[in-house]
Write a structure and sequence with these properties.
- This protein has 531 residues and is of the alpha/beta class.
- The protein contains 19 helices and 15 strands.
- A three-stranded parallel sheet has the order 1-2-5.
Length: 531
Amino acid sequence: MQWVEDVIKLALKRKPAMSKFVITDWKTPSGKVHLGALRGALIHDAVYKSLLEKNKKAVFYYGFDDYDPMDKLPKNLPESFQKYLGFPFSEIPLPPHPESPAIHSEDECGNKKYSLHKASCFNMGCEGLPNSSLSYGTFFSKDFQQVFEKLDVTPKILWSSKLYKQGKFNCTFDIVIKNAQKIREIYQEIASQDRPKDWLAVQMVCKNCGRIGTTRAYDFREGKVYYSCDRDYVKYTKGCGYKGAGSPYDGNAKLPWKVEWAAKWFILGTDIEGAGKDHQTKGGSHDLASAIFEEVFKGKTPINIAYEHFLIEGKKMSTSKGLGMSASGFADIMPAHLARFFILKFKPKVQIDFNMTADFIPRLYDSFDATEKQFNLRFSKVAFLAQMPHIDIQREAQKEKGSCLTAREKQNLSDRVKFAHVWLEKIAYAKYKFELQKTLPKIAIASRQKKFLTELLKVYQTKKHWQGADLHQQIHKIKHEVGIEPKLAFEAIYQIFLGRNDGPQAGWFLAGLEYDFVKKRLKQSCEITKK
């Protein structure tokens, strides 16, 4: 990928080739993490793996900002959790198990219509939570960690709460407090935000109520930060009114996130870290963090990989609002290599508008197969064969390939069978699902249909082993010779085998069935009384 090569070229210009390159990415665990967050994780992982492939030393840290305060009530949390607004996510308990919403609705044809707000396996809420001693922040962090590890993303994990409590940020408090005036000026100059003359970029944990989002620090004397837990300091919740002083070190405080962003680059020595479009506006959070890092921490802003939003049905996803497909839901419906392929095939600055139609996954497999040099049985055919228990899918694949499958091809086929069943159960439209009828259904067929089936039987009996494309071509030839409309011809086939008016491509369908079974069913159909 050219964009990865461009990032690495910049990195090599900055540091000697033998240096260790540090790649970082962060996420606030405000709820079940949405699919869009996978883009950042995979982009950074692609750079990390490329550096390793070039025999460069590199480390990839993925951090969870679980010491951030909850500043809005995430979707699906009970109203009783209003009391935790302003608390760090690491100090908030798990919610009770709410009732799961419906997975989908169906139209009049039985086709699934996914809702942006209603989904079970794709849900952005909290259903399915076990009884656990884990905190809210830890649970959703680990939930997302399991997802990206499924996609072969295995960074070193960091937790902001632990870094603060272990004293890793202690030196940054000294720098920030010493440069309080400079930081206030940067806020004004870069973001046009006024900060009071006594404002310190420190958020103390209130000794009285435990909130971290409602405290205002205004003085520092003799190693202590003086603060008040103001009742009206923030709009989303009320402070308790307590006034006090304490050491900011060892987890007693945190930095406001834009200042904290610069501080994390400082303590980790970050060389490369990108961010989404919402952070990249002029005067926005990245500009502010960059200015603070360069003017206060005296560093050089890490190489920035700016990437576009990941939309779903044209709407921006949101963890706290419960909008979009969850990352875990996405990872559950396809193998890791396909998920990586889908996300990384887009350049970072290209917007991805994801729309989970029933055809999405088959088309994605086809797109992936076009880039592969090895044989893969087409996913749509696998899904078709997976519904026919008497068919040996591996044998069918070998027949199509014309030789034995390699070990890798066998594994890929096994994965496709597994995810074909998932697709059929959770996503596929009704028209893609069928059940082979063990006996001839009780139907009546028109005379032209009977004539068509009679001629089809004659042709079918000319050889025992048909290729799908050849038989499909013969079906079209027969319907032309008989003078029957295509719709009536194919309906006749589907009715006698499936008991319905539609189905998979007829030639491949019949070629995949046992010869004697097809021959017998066609003979039976020719004996049906005319309408």
